[in-house]
Write a structure and sequence with these properties.
Elements lengths: L4 H8 L7 H6 L1 H8 L3 E5 L4 H10 L6 E5 L3 H12 L8 E5 L6 H10 L4 E4 L12 H19 L2 H4 L3 E4 L11 H13 L7 E5 L3 E2 L6 H10 L4 E4 L3 E2 L1 E2 L1 H14 L4 E5 L3 H4 L1 E2 H11 L3 E4 L3 H5 L8 E7 L18 E3 L6 E5 L5 H16 L5 H11 L17
Parallel strand pairs: 1-2, 1-4, 2-3, 4-5, 5-6, 6-11, 7-10, 8-14, 13-14
Antiparallel strand pairs: 9-12, 11-16, 15-16
Helix pairs in contact: 3-11, 4-11, 7-9, 9-16, 10-13, 15-16
């Protein structure tokens, strides 16, 4: 999260949350769904998970258990929550656990029942598909761990289940998006007893690990800025991401996905233009360089100039157009002022089971090949439009 609300408002083109009216008008229904209830939140210390927790605690849950693999992230979230005027429930626990590990299952079963499982654990970077090892880990976190947790629904007493998705799950152009497509298939399996819902959105401005956060880190460290010159993206704030997930988690119906109602003409933003705005906020202008090497070694620039390298995208997995729902989806744009609702079809359990069985077979094989894992993903996600370009984001500045 940026430390400058003015910069965030400048980039987004709004100072107030786009979901403020929806949260206010639905406050009584949110209170009815949350007040006095018991919740288990995974991935709670990440940018979106923490934003969700900040919003949810205002509605007075009776039990709030937060799980995240990041020990430091949980510590900071607890310090923030304890330092705020909003009281935490008496039954408040945190656990630094791997969501996919046996310790998490033991923790959940020992502290059940819960009214809802709310999942923000994810490998969300396209760069995580760069090799077969990272790809297998991404499937483990984004797909298999959720399946194992939902298989415990009866024993946990779950009435609702929420897992955050991404716009990249729709007609995915990368394997990360395909893994979230598979996550949705797990969440929306036919016969799953809890009411399962999700939310899709694009980029969260200045969230942990995002390119915008990277701009601020580069400036702090005196390093050049780099961005694709031909990529435009939708952005929402961390607070808006938390609020959208709050609406989706507690007010959406079975197999519904909420997404922000954003307009391409007004809300699609160029990443290179955002870099320029970040610089302008600090009284700086770009010094355009012709290569990464030139930008890295730029010297003796005027004090108000900053080295930048903006170039056409040439890495695997970049999707030029962001989509929040499929053209064939049943979509309701009247239910909320700032959020649309897409209803998904139920997934046949045998599709999920077949994919996970194939991944288990590949994991047990003596040799791991990325092409074999990609073939398994393609079989389960026919809409995948993935093209390997032999260049990934880790190979760029």
């Amino acid at each position: 999260m940026t430390d400058s609300p003015e910069l965030l408002a400048r980039i987004l083109g709004r100072a107030e949350s786009m979901f403020a009216e929806d949260i206010a008008s639905e406050a009584s229904r949110l209170a009815e769904a949350i007040d006095g209830k018991r919740f288990l939140v995974t991935g709670a210390a990440g940018s979106i998970g923490a934003a969700f927790v900040r919003e949810m605690v205002r509605f007075r849950p009776a039990r709030l258990h937060l799980v995240d693999i990041s020990e430091n992230g949980l510590v900071e979230l607890v310090r923030e929550l304890r330092s705020s005027p909003t009281a935490l429930p008496r039954d408040f626990l945190t656990a630094s656990l791997d969501y996919g590990g046996p310790e998490f299952a033991r923790f959940a079963l020992d502290h059940a029942p819960y009214d809802a499982l709310i999942n923000f654990s994810a490998l969300k970077h396209v760069r995580a598909e760069r090799d077969v090892y990272s790809l297998m880990r991404m499937i483990e976190v984004n797909v298999e761990s959720l399946k194992r947790s939902l298989d415990l629904s009866d024993r946990l007493g779950l009435r609702r289940a929420f897992s955050v998705s991404t716009d990249k799950s729709v007609r995915p152009a990368n394997l990360m998006g395909a893994s979230k497509n598979l996550m949705e298939k797990v969440l929306f399996r036919a016969g799953l007893e809890p009411v399962a819902t999700s939310a899709r959105f694009a980029n969260v401005a200045f969230s942990g690990g995002s390119l915008l956060e990277g701009f601020e880190q580069r400036l702090k460290k005196g390093q050049p800025l780099s961005a694709p010159s031909d990529v435009r993206r939708y952005f929402i704030s961390e607070r808006e991401a938390g609020e959208l997930c709050l609406l989706a988690c507690f007010l959406a119906e079975r197999r519904q996905v909420l997404f922000p109602k954003l307009d391409a003409e007004r809300h699609l933003l160029s990443l290179a233009d955002i870099a320029t705005q970040v610089l302008a906020h600090r009284g700086l202008t770009p010094h355009l360089c012709g290569s990464e090497e030139e930008a890295i070694h730029a010297r003796n620039l005027p004090k108000d100039r900053w080295p930048c390298y903006f170039s056409a995208s040439d890495t695997t997995g970049e999707k030029m157009v962001e989509e929040f729902h499929r053209l064939t989806d049943v979509v309701d744009t009247t239910r909320f002022r700032a959020a649309g609702v897409a209803r998904e079809e139920a997934t046949e359990p045998k599709l999920v089971d077949g994919f996970l069985a194939e991944i288990a077979r590949l994991r047990a094989s003596s040799t791991w090949k990325k092409a074999d894992v990609v073939a398994a993903i393609r079989a389960a996600v026919p809409e995948l439009e993935h093209h390997e370009l032999d260049r990934n984001l880790d190979q760029k500045m």
